[in-house]
C-alpha cells in the first residue's frame, strides 16, 4: 500500500513536469485565407527572409495589422516612410503575408509597400486593403 502511494506521487510529479515543460505550438496557416484578396505571388530562394513594410507615399494615418502565415507580426501599426522589418522563416511551398486595415487614413485604401529580402534578391510590391477587406500576397519557397 505504501509503495503504491509513493508510485502514484512520483507518477503525478512526472506528469506535472512533463506538461509544464512543453512549449505551446503556434498554428501556422500557409494558405491565404479566403477573406484576403490575393494581390500577387513572388518566389524566393531561401527559407529565412526579411520582410520590411513602409508607406511609400504620403503618411496619411494608415493603421494596419501585418500577418504572416496566420500569425500577427505587428498590430495597430501606423505606417510611416520609415521601414519596420521582421525576420521570418518560411515553410516549404506556399506562405503568405497580409494586411488587415484598422484605419484607411485620409487617402483610402490603405497601401503598404513590402520589401522581401531572401539574402540573394530583394523584391518589392504593394498590398492594398480596406476595412473588412484585407489584402495579401503569396510567398513561395
Q: How many helices does DSSP assign?
A: 1
**Structural domain tally:** 1
Q: Could you describe the largest sheet, including whether it forms a barrel?
A: 5 strands, mixed
* Amount of beta strand: over 45%
Cα distance spanning the termini: 60 Å
Mean pLDDT: 87
Q: What gross morphology would you assign?
A: globular
Secondary-structure element order, as H and E? HEEEEEEEEE
Which structural class do the helices and strands define? mainly beta
Percent helix range: 10-25%
Q: Which short descriptors sum up this protein?
A:
13% helix; 141 residues; mainly beta; 48% strand; 1 helix; single chain; 5-stranded mixed sheet; 4-stranded antiparallel sheet
Explain what you see.
The chain has about 140 residues and is mainly beta. It has one domain. Helix content is about 15%, strand content about 50%. It has one helix spanning about 1-20; strands at about 35-45, 50-55, 60-70, 70-80, 85-90, 95-105, 110-115, 120-130, 135-140. The protein starts with a helix and ends with a strand. Mean pLDDT is about 85; it is low at about 5-25.
